[in-house]
Amino acid sequence: MNEVQRQGDKVLALPTDRLMPNIQRFGQQSIEFTFLGPNIHGQPTWIMWNASEPHLIGMLSQGKMGYHFEQRTGDGVQRLENISLNRVQRALGG
Q1: What is the pLDDT of residues 11-44, one digit of tens each?
Q2: Is 28 strand, coil or helix?
Q3: In the chain, what is the straight-line distance between the N-terminal and C-terminal CA atoms, in Å?
Q4: How does DSSP classify residue 18?
Q5: Model pTM score
């Protein structure tokens, strides 16, 4: 079963099959989502990779009030907390 957020024609579906990659397209890029299972806090956690080249995009976990999105940037680690799937999708370019 996937958790799905719909916005118009675009759909962000988070896979829940552990360690089974799922590729989704956002604008011009394809992103591979892999469900890792619960983290140390018991929160469902996914990693996101650029599907066309081996580049880690970030990590997503589900908290009590929303999602936590963490990614490495040129200025260090950026962490967005308690955001909606809609905002995650916008951050990914969709």
Answers
A1: 678 999 999 999 988 777 889 999 999 999 999 9
A2: coil
A3: 22
A4: B
A5: 0.80
CA angle 84, 31, 1 (to 5 degrees): 60
CA-derived radius of gyration, the chain: 12
One-character DSSP codes across 30-91: EEEEEEEEE-TTS-EEEEEEETTTTEEEEEEEE-SSSEEEEEEETTEEEEEEEE-HHHHHHH
pLDDT digits (tens, 9 = 90+) for 67-86: 999 988 788 888 999 999 88
- Cα–Cα nearest to 85, from 3, 31, 5, 16: 5
Give the position of tokens 């990590």. 59
